[in-house]
Each structure stands twice: as C-alpha cells, then as structure tokens.
Amino acid sequence: MSREEFLPVDRFLHTLEIVSREGHHLAYSWRRLYTENISEEWVRQLEDRPEMAERLEAFVSRFSRMQDTIADKLLPRWLKALAETPGSQIEVLNRAERLGVLNSTSEWLEARKLRNELVHEYMTCPAEFAASLLLARDHALMLMDTYESLREDAQTRLNLPDTRLPGQIKRPC
C-alpha cells in the first residue's frame, strides 16, 4: 500500500510518529544546550568551542525541523483525520488553537519568526543571537507541548487507543 492509499488517520499517525522522534531528539538537545549559561559572551566563545557550536547547531536544526513538520504536515493531517479540510497555514493554526491543541497562534508565529532568526541570523550579532536562544528555550517546550496535545486529542476526539500512538516526550522541565 502506498502512502497515497493511507486513510487520513493513518497518515496522521505516521506523521505523529515522526514528530515523536523529532521531539525526543529536540528534548535531548534542549537538555544538553540549556545546561550552559547562554549569554553574549557565550556566543562569542563558540568559535573557540566547536563542541558547543555543534551542540547549538543540533538544537537549532531539531527546533526548526520539528516546527516545520508540525505546521506543514502534522496539523493539516490531523484536520483531515477529523474530516476537516485544511486551509492556509494560518487557518490551520487558528483552527488548532480553537480546538485546543495549540495554545496560541500568535505564539506559534513568534516561534516561526524566531526559527528564521536562529537559522539565518546565526551569530551576526552575538547579543541578539543569545537573546533569541533564550527565547527558543521556551518555544521548544511549546513544540513538545503541542505534540502532547495532539497525542491526547487523538485519544479523545479520534478515539484512538494508546497502543496505536507513539509515546510521550519526556519534557525537559
């Protein structure tokens, strides 16, 4: 059976599994990065600390990937599993907020802007980059919380048993 032949709920579950793996990796990177005292000076020292630069790159990559997968794939597939027709990304986010799986569309859009800053503004201004990293700390937790909300919603609204769902993400905080 090809992916195109999957029922909407199966496509949703497949994508939920992907996001679960992404979330576990993001949680791991979050724990390793935020043991550091992130500041402007910390950012300046990255050039001489390649192991920390790698740790940072892993976090930024995982943060970006999980956010993209949730917004571009998981939320629209969740709506299709609910027999709804997803619209534009902002419409999908607004619908997810109204149905209670997303805390705030505006917070999600802030995280999206932050994601772009982390990827494209990498260390051009150490003070701003450090501030963005500190914001990303909470936004990464929001991504993990969104996964958990979708997982819970699949149990309640879609009436899926826990055995069909990927596991919970051990939240860093």
Topology:
Blueprint: H1 8-33, H2 40-44, H3 50-81, H4 89-98, H5 105-120, H6 126-156
Helix pairs in contact: 1-3, 1-6, 3-4, 3-5, 3-6, 5-6
Residue share in β-strands: under 5%
* Chain-averaged pLDDT: 94
List how many beta strands DSSP finds.
0
Query: Uncertain segments of ≥5 residues (pLDDT<50)?
Result: none
| Percentage of residues assigned to helices | 55-70%
Q: Judging from the principal axes of the Cα atoms, what is the shape? A: elongated
User: What's the Cα radius of gyration?
Assistant: 17 Å
Number of discrete helical segments: 6
Largest sheet: none
Order of helices and strands: HHHHHH
What structural category characterises the helix and strand content?
Answer: mainly alpha
Short précis:
The chain has 173 residues and is mainly alpha-helical.
Tell me what you see in this structure.
The chain is mainly alpha-helical. It has six helices and no strands. The longest helix is centred in the middle third of the chain and has 32 residues, at 50-81. It is elongated, with a radius of gyration of 17 Å. The mean pLDDT is 94.
Entry keywords:
6 helices, elongated, 173 residues, mainly alpha
